[in-house]
Amino acid sequence: MIPWRLLVELALFGLAALPLWHRQCYLLASMLMALFLLNRLALSLWGQNTV
Description:
Distance between the termini: 12 Å
Number of helices: 2
Mean pLDDT: 76
Largest sheet: none
């Protein structure tokens, strides 16, 4: 099951912290967050397929 609550919290945190980040920090954080979300999504889908 995809943790929608976690995704919503991360999205809200990203939007709230957006004005505080510099451009490079924002790019790095967005790449790391995208990798994290893709990893969670892939693991959840893989878990659903194997069960």
